[in-house]
Design goal:
Distance between the termini: 35 Å
Number of domains: 1
Helix content: over 70%
Largest sheet: none
Structural class: mainly alpha
Strand content: under 5%
Radius of gyration: 21 Å
Number of strands: 0
Order of helices and strands: HHHHHHHHHHHHHH
Amino acid sequence: MTVWAIADRAPLPLIYSLAFPLGRTQAPRTQNNLAMVSETAHSRAALAGIALMTGGIFMFAVNDALGKWLVATFSVGQVLLVRSLAAMVLLAPFIWRDIAEFAAAPRWGLQALRAAFATVEVACFYWAVAYLPLADVMAFYLAGPIFVTAIAGTLLREPVGWRRWAAVAAGFVGVIVCLRPGAATLTWPALIALAGSFTFSLSMISTRFLRGTSDTVLVTTQTVSALAFGAVVAPFAWTPPGAGDLALLCLLGIVAMVAHMCVNRSLILAPASTVVPYQYTTIVWAVLFGYLVFGDVPDAWMLSGAAIIVAAGLFIYLRERRLARRDSAFSEPPP
């Protein structure tokens, strides 16, 4: 679902041993050997990055399926409350390590607004999956980067060329296909999922303006926001959980935090252009878990719309990467 990182400096000895083997005691003596060793290290790091990204996205999918299972019994507020409490326990060592970062964090008003957006987004997600198939909701959320481009080009006045505008238009067509507009299919849960996707894009845009903020601060603020929301809302629809249900509710927060760590580490080991496209494998897992766990069979409308959204999102991402490389090679951006 959401892809924010919390452990940019967390140790991962196994991954580092794969990416940068330490067994050699002598440096290579020729430039060819140096080039070969460097190429091998980069290749291993890229493979490790891909493995971590796909593993992290798989864990996010497990987290989403587990959330759908739990909201069938417990209210969204109760799920967010226990999930956030478990996440805070896991975050505690990082908060202690980076305590000085909180005092130095800029623009606390925007920090609070971003945390509110993140809370609304996750609440909409759980509310929507309580009524819709997991793959349908995930298809709407994959439109988040498309909303970001549209908002950046209109409200933020960022330059967006015609190619990306065409991809935005195509992405919105994919959303409409997924919505299957009609009296019988345009339901409140579908609109809630769409609203959650739009709020997710607002959260991503607000993150752009907080680039100097540490990852620990960003994730802690949004976790505290979700915790506060759950604490206020949960008492109105509280269902006493058994020991097994309580364990699953806690596991929801733990799995999400570990998934964040995997995604973040993948972006450290490998270039974003190598690993980010693998985020779209989430729709594959959503379809698979939806079918195996909940018996949801995706229809042609959802699959077609999801394919259009994924294609549009990938095009926008690759186009932005290409323009970024051009900007770094020339003093002025291309027309």
